[in-house]
Amino acid sequence: MVSSSGQTALLLAIRGLGKTFGRYVALKTIDLDVHEGEFLSFLGPSGCGKSTLLRIITGLERQSAGTIGQGGRDISALSPAQRGFGILFQSYALFPNLTVRQNVAYGLNGSGRAAEARVAELLEMVGLPDIGGKFPSQLSGGQQQRVALARALAPSPKLLLLDEPLSALDAKVRVHLREQIKDLQRRLGITTIMVTHDQEEALAMADRIVVMNHGTVEQVGTPAEIYGHPASLFVASFVGKMNLVPGQVAGGAFRPHGSTATIAEAQGEGAARLCVRPEDIEVSDAGSGTAARVEGVEFLGAFTRLRLAVPGWGGVVLSADVAARQMRDLAIAPGAAVRITLDPTRLQLLPGGGDA
Amino acid sequence: MRDVMLERAVVTRHRAPPISEPALRLMLTLVLFAALVVLVLLPVGAILSKSLEDQNGAFVGLGNFSAYLGNPSLTRSIGNSLLLGALTTTITVSLAFLYAYALSRSCMPLKPLFRGIGLLPVLSPSLLPAIALTYLFGNQGFLRDLLGGASIYGLSGIVVAQVFYCFPHALLILTTALALSDARLYEAAEMLGASRGRMFRTITLPGARFGLISAVFVVFTIAVTDFGVAKVIGGQFNVLSIDIYKQVIGQQNFRMGAVVGVLLLLPAVLSFGVDLYVRRRQKSMLSVRAVVLVPEQRRGFDLAMLAAAGLVALFILVLVGTALFASFVKFWPYDLSLSLGNYDFAAYDAAGWSSYGNSLTMAAWTALIGTVFAFGGAYLVEKGPGLALPRALYRALAVLPLAVPGLVLGLGYIFFFNSPSNPLNGVYGGLSILVMSTIAHYYTVPHLMAVTALKQIDDEIEEAAAALGVPFWQTFSRVTLPICAPTVIDIATYFFLNAMTTIGAVVFLYAPATKLASVAVVEMDDTGDTAAAAAMAVMILLTAAAVKLLQMLLTSVILRRTQVWRLRRDDGLIDDAGRAPSGA
Predict the structure, then answer these.
(1) Which of A348, B181, B378, B390 has the most CB atoms less than 10 A away?
(2) Which CATH number fits domain A10-234: 3.40.50.300, 3.40.50.2300, 3.40.50.10490, 3.30.1490.100?
(3) pLDDT tens sequence across A327-356
(4) B488 touches chain A (CB under 8 A)
(5) A241-351 — its CATH code?
(6) pTM value?
(7) Which residues in chain B are contacts of A62 at CB distance < 8 A?
(8) HSE (CB half, 13 Å, CA atoms) of B448?
(9) What is the ipTM of this complex?
(10) A152: closest chain B residue by CA
């Protein structure tokens, strides 16, 4: 696994970490570095082990194998309290019988003026300076999550852990809070790990993304790397929309099944898949390019997604996104004949056949 | 928003506590587990092993059982108990179903009142209906002539009194079962043109079938194992529970007592297994999206339901009223002028009023210790990380008392605690053994009430607190306990009420100085002082009613004071559905 972000001091070193529940293997030998000040995101479908990994880092769950090192010290045996990380849960987990102020002060030692000042400072920081006396049930979901954030940050944790923090909120609030958390993280410079199954959230917020599947790490990289150069079929199909064209590599060229046309240049031999993003397919109504037929049109606002059958490539069906501006210039309706070209710099080949 | 330097934070995190939290949790869990072993498992084990020994403590296998089964007068009580159980169960469950149906599916008026009357018997000792019946139909009863020469002493008397006593238990189960219905099913059936009868057969009955099964077994167990009713009104009709009492108290034949005890365990264990199975099934029956059924007005049907429920309520009120009236009457039936003479207990029983005081003290200790024990145990088992094996063992042991009849538990306590080799021998003959046996006997329901309430609190609450470095006992007292306050009150009330009315276990364990009010009722009735017995039973009933009112008052005050944060339920953190009714 490679990381390409600027190297800073190492905060956590996870080595050979494994977790089994009875006979079920939740995590298989995870190796991962977490650097000071970075925003890391664990991304994967439900059941991929990302939450288990987060819970092991917090100390709420104990690993079956491997170590977690912090500053050269093995912290595997420490309790959550001794590790001193801040956690934000999907359910907010605010204490319902305590006021906002009492909630934020909960992890602080002492209740004097210093604690009061700290609480006020944090509430202002999350943009809710005037609600200290209210109870959680009197707040909206977004407000509750911001209070939970203030509570997690109050004891000045070295690491902030976010467990699907936005998934209980509705879409508008989600986007707003996403920006707010990211902004706060950058200004405080606090190392943050967020678990999410929402690839858009991970791409928008994280400095680095750890894509996980079936208890293993599939790929670690910046959002651009993950999106632009998926290292596996799983990453290619999980992050964003991806066309996967099955075919064969021979003699330096990739040919789709059932066709002799060469779509891309390639090294090596054997079964492979060509990955191409819908937005990297150029659609025009005439001129050069491969002939295709419009099978379906899905209007999505800023762009339109077309389903295109390409007879010359063995009848493969591709999704192509056409920007609204360009759409107005094209006469496209189901059944129309169009021409497509692929941007050779945006193509990627992944070895292997079968279904993704 | 303004910039904040985290390094500048003036306030520090909590320091790590002096003793490691997992170690403390484990220790507490083991202590409570050991307490359950001593209070439940070992006494029950003692009775099992005693039933397999001869007079000198040598192992004789099933010898005692074959000796028992070879005695026709004793085996007759098995048949009698089964007959009694079958009759009581059939009548009680039928009436309770009708009553529950009227409460949940009709629009009859005065529903809260009817509900209250239906649950009233829970507050009374099982002897009260029996005593009331002797006043109505006994040798000097008002309505004796209605029986046309037949006697109330015997099967019919026991059944009628037990129907009264078992009724609220069945009612609670069946109202819950009938409340769990999905209005959409009825709407669908109506659209398809189903008749009311067909809807009842195809939707109502199947929906309530688990409740019905559960009610049948619960009532059967109470009927077969109850001792007070048969003692007062049984006459020559021998049943198993009377056999135990006679063998142990009358003939000091502990081994035969143990044999009958083991036989009594059988229906209780069976019922326990069925109940466990039913609980598990019922939970998954209803989807979260079900729509609550709201009954619509139908004049004829509502009136019929009102009449039916009214008759049952009248039956309950007449029995309670008779006991109440008789306790104030100078000399039934010759001098019906009112007096408080029957409440001068010292004139009838050496213990006088002190047995009532003993009951209050015993019930208060039971409520206090039992609540701490049950809620604390449930908390340790339900919350926090790890300890899978001790937790599973604790859970299993916590539900066991439900399967042990009071008489059997009491006998086990004699065997276990009266043994000279037991270091706890000192509790024997004191108030503490009464408290211990009562907590053990009634442990299961409070445990389940606490578990239900704790499960309503999201685990992430505790985890968030743990991550903030706050020790679990602090979160327990500041967050968990306040949220569960209504349940804690329910649990304390449950323990108190049952401690006031119980007779099964304590009848073997009291000493002259620690005689309880319920025992005094049995004894005074035994010596012919029925009016004083009725008066004492009324005292128990009134005390229980007062405690019940206090509980309702306290709960409403708490709910009012905390309604700000209990207001919205959409986050599912707190839910009153978790509160089991305290009479269950």
Answers:
(1) B378
(2) 3.40.50.300
(3) 888 878 888 899 999 888 888 888 876 544
(4) no
(5) 2.40.50.100
(6) 0.83
(7) 385-386
(8) 16
(9) 0.77
(10) B468
